[in-house]
Amino acid sequence: MAAAPGNQYSPGRPKGAINETSRRVKEVFANLLEGREEELNEALNKLRDKDPKAFLEMFIKVSERFVGQVSRTEITAQDGEPFQPIQIVLPKKDV
């Protein structure tokens, strides 16, 4: 019988722990890239010269593996119109 959720004796990986297979795949990939930065840079430069659009697509795909994606939030007014930011103007201080 399984332990109740939140029980300190419940089986499984601790929250936030990396799966062993995922950790190993990342390690193997890092070993493949180690010392090949110049080759990778050269290949990307050739792709950029040959097909700039493909270069950007590849650059984004590679970047997503190492840099987290940024989430976007759109702010609108209550009526759905574009949000007009509040402008605060401070008086200049006499020195």
What sort of overall outline do the alpha carbons produce when their principal axes are compared?
flat
Mean pLDDT: 81
Query: Counting H and I runs of at least 4 residues, what is the number of helices?
Result: 3
**Topology as H/E string?**
HHH
Low-confidence stretches: none
How much of the polypeptide forms β-strand, as a percent range?
A: under 5%
Oligomer: single chain
> Main beta sheet: strand number and arrangement?
none
Number of strands: 0
Rg, rounded, reads 25 Å
For the termini, the CA-CA separation is 76 Å
Structural class: mainly alpha
Q: What is the helix content? A: 40-55%
Structure description:
- The chain has a domain at 20-66.
- Helix 2 (37-50) runs antiparallel to helix 3.
- The N and C termini lie far apart (76 Å).
- By secondary structure, it is mostly helical.
- The model has no long low-confidence stretch (mean pLDDT 81).
- It has helices spanning 20-33, 37-50, 52-66.
- It is built from three helices and no strands.
